[in-house]
Amino acid sequence: MRAAKALDTRTRPAIVIGVQAPDIETAVKYARMRTTSPDAIIAIPLIGGKDEPNRWNTTCIGAACSAPLIVQTVGPMSVD
């Protein structure tokens, strides 16, 4: 992370870190790791993207970090 952050911001690739975990509390903990300062975070739905709890999970993860959140979809998960 330090090596990438030391590069010129106009030419370096974006730094995206995964915050997936077996439970929402751990995923939120990873998203809150301020020392890494990623350009974005990515999370995969905890339960296959098929029901309402994933909206809550991704909302919690997104709120835990000021970086943009990329939601990795699995199955019939709505983009809404």
Topology, pairings included?
Elements: H1 2-5, E1 16-18, H2 24-31, E2 40-43, H3 53-63, E3 69-71
Parallel strand pairs: 1-2, 2-3
Characterization of the model:
The protein has three helices and three strands. The chain is of the alpha/beta class. Helix 2 packs parallel to helix 3. The longest helix has 11 residues. The N and C termini lie far apart (32 Å).
Q: What value does the Rg take, in angstroms? A: 14 Å
**Multimeric state:** single chain
The outline comes out as: globular
Distance between the termini: 32 Å
Contiguous helical run count: 3
The major β-sheet equals: 3 strands, parallel
What proportion of the residues is helical, as a percent range? 25-40%
How many structurally independent domains?
Answer: 1
- Strand neighbour order, sheet with most strands: 1-2-3
- Low-confidence spans: none
Q: How many beta-strand segments?
A: 3
Work out the strand percent: 5-15%
Pairing-aware structural class of the strands and helices?
alpha/beta
Calculate the mean pLDDT score and round it. 80
How do the SSEs run, as a string of H and E? HEHEHE
